[in-house]
Design brief:
Layout lengths: L4 E6 L5 H10 L3 E6 L4 H7 L3 E4 L25 E4 L1 H9 L3 E17 L12 E14 L5 E6 L6 E4 L4 E4 L11 H12 L8 H16 L4 E4 L4 H13 L4 E7 L7 H9 L5 E6 L1 H7 L6 H22 L5 E3 L4 H6 L25 E3 L7 H10 L4 H4 L19 H21 L5 E15 L2 E14 L7 E2 L4 H14 L3 E6 L13
The structure holds xanthosine-5'-monophosphate.
Xanthosine-5'-monophosphate binds next to loops.
Length: about 500
């Protein structure tokens, strides 16, 4: 039986995946299509509702994205968000103009709760506003449903037509009850039955992988992290025996990582192929201290090693990658600015001739990937493993990377991870960073000149933003004492108290 579908029409907004994710969390399948989708295609999809995303344009400009007006004749419930809300208002005869005062950020919004969209909510809501245009005249037949200090029309609706618009962004966490509003739209207005779950996601991916791959073979770049492990498990379920997991140890792994991975994955129904390439990588980045250059060189070398090793395996038709949605955004594939080059997105040599690339997790956020892993029965320590960057410890060693520095960082990093884990204090990702600064200290009667080691611990659910973890002083003291006692090359331990933005989680 087909799942009910919420169709998300993309008008260029940066939060479209968050809309989809929120809809999925409300147990409704969501799919994104471009705003210029045809009416015939919409009819074929047969959605229970349509959501118009936000977007950076102004609806009153000639070349701004529009949609087929006949979408209003389909009698399908509609929700417009930000640009989407303005577009609906304009297309139905209302007016949109530039604001006297733009609104950005957390805003207090006063809502009319006597309607299906805001039913059950308090009359005052914290919402995220981000707009320079606003609706000034509503189309006839539409009711004002919310306002803020600077935005007289913050939400509107027509209960009979089941068409609604919100100027704010219900899909982001800043809008505290945003999910409730979307749930109301899905269940009160669009009569969703809540027939979608992560099991459906897995089943549809399994089906689609089988259909694509047939009886051919698939090569997965396997790092042992959550993403590639879940990807491996998903592929192993879809095409047991046809999956080759190539694990390249670039020498920048955490302490005893390779041995641990071998033990965890060797006996599974995948073809596990570990390769020690540490000398090649170290040689490549010898003397390099610029972070982007390091990332690029490691990425390029990774591609070469991958190519060499893949060629040894003979002709494998498909390539699989454990790319997840935040990787796609932050690598600039989604028209956002490039922040860091993530080496697991793109970058493989064209000489490797694959018939296609399979990325079954590319629409999911980290916590959703973990859920998929849990359902697939992966052990807890794998599913709840912290993310680890592709270039590994090389980007946690500031400046030049040497074997000695890797060894120092590996030993200090184990202590950081052991102590934070043992404490049970709240942190979603934590590790050590070896800075390139050395400082003077004293041990016994002797002067020392050791490395400064930074401890990084963050709280986050999506790894796209984070707050630094408020670890207790006791815990920080224990970490500091153990590191300075057990890792003699480190003379000073500091704690990174920066959130993201403005910092990133990794230091390079
Ligand atoms: P940043 O440093 O961009 O990190 O705030 C966000 C999350 O992504 C991880 N990270 C990477 N993951 N390849 C990856 O697969 C990479 O090149 C990479 N760089 C950063 C980082 O550990 C954090 O969880």
């Amino acid at each position: 039986m087909q799942n009910q579908i919420a169709l998300v029409l993309d008008f260029g907004g940066q939060y479209k995946e968050l809309i989809c994710r929120t809809v999925r969390e409300c147990n409704v399948l969501s799919i994104i299509k471009p705003s210029d989708i045809t009416i015939e295609e919409i009819k074929q999809i047969n959605p229970i509702c349509i959501i118009f995303t936000g977007g950076p344009n102004s609806v009153y400009l000639e070349d701004s994205p529009k949609c087929d007006r006949r979408v209003f004749d389909l009698n399908i419930p509609l929700l417009g968000i930000c640009y989407g809300a303005q577009l609906i208002a304009q297309l139905l005869g209302g007016k949109v103009e530039k604001c006297d005062t733009s609104e950005y950020g957390e805003t207090e919004c006063f809502v009319d709760t006597d309607n299906d969209l805001f039913k059950g909510l308090d009359k005052e809501q914290q919402v995220l506003m981000s707009h320079t245009d606003r609706i000034t005249i509503l189309p006839s037949g539409f009711k004002l449903l919310a306002h803020t200090k600077d935005c007289p029309i913050a939400a509107y609706g027509n209960e009979e037509k089941k068409v609604y618009g919100v100027q704010f962004h219900p899909e982001v966490e800043i809008t505290l009850n945003g999910k409730e509003i979307i749930r109301n739209f899905l269940y009160n207005i669009s009569k969703a039955s809540g027939d979608y779950s992560m099991d459906d996601y897995i089943n549809s991916q399994v089906e689609s992988i089988r259909k694509t791959v047939g009886n051919k073979r698939v090569l997965l770049g396997f790092s042992g992290g959550v993403d590639s492990s879940v990807c491996a498990a998903l592929l192993a379920k879809a095409i047991p025996g046809q999956l080759y997991c190539l694990y390249i140890d670039h020498g920048f792994m955490r302490k005893d990582e390779t041995a641990h991975l071998k033990k965890t994955f060797e006996n599974r129904s995948i073809n596990f192929i570990p390769v020690d390439a540490s000398s090649r990588f170290l040689e490549k980045i010898e003397g390099v201290s610029d972070p982007e250059t390091k990332r690029k060189l490691i990425g390029a070398e990774f591609a070469k090693v991958f190519e060499d090793e893949a060629l040894k395996l003979g002709n494998i038709e498909y390539l699989a990658q454990g790319t997840i949605y935040p990787d796609v955004v932050e690598s600039g594939k989604n028209k956002s600015a490039v922040i860091k080059s993530h080496h697991n997105v793109g970058g493989l040599p064209s000489s490797l001739r694959f018939e296609g690339v399979i990325e079954p997790l590319s629409g999911l956020f980290k916590d959703e990937v973990r859920k998929v892993g849990e359902i697939l029965g992966l052990p807890d320590e794998v599913v709840h493993r912290q993310p680890f960057p592709g270039p590994g410890l090389a980007i946690r060693i500031i400046g030049e990377v040497t074997r000695e520095k890797i060894d120092i960082l590996q030993r200090a990093d184990v202590i950081v991870r052991e102590e934070i884990k043992k404490s049970g204090e709240k942190a979603d990702q934590y590790f050590a960073v070896l800075t390139n600064s050395r400082s003077v200290g004293v041990v016994g009667d002797f002067r020392t000149y050791g490395y400064t080691l930074a401890v990084r611990a963050v709280v986050t659910s999506d790894f796209m933003t984070c707050e630094y973890a408020k670890l207790s002083y006791d815990l920080l003291s224990r970490i500091s004492q153990r590191i300075t006692n057990e890792v003699k090359e480190v003379g000073r331990v500091v704690y990174d108290i920066t959130s993201k933005p403005p910092a990133t989680i990794e230091w390079e």
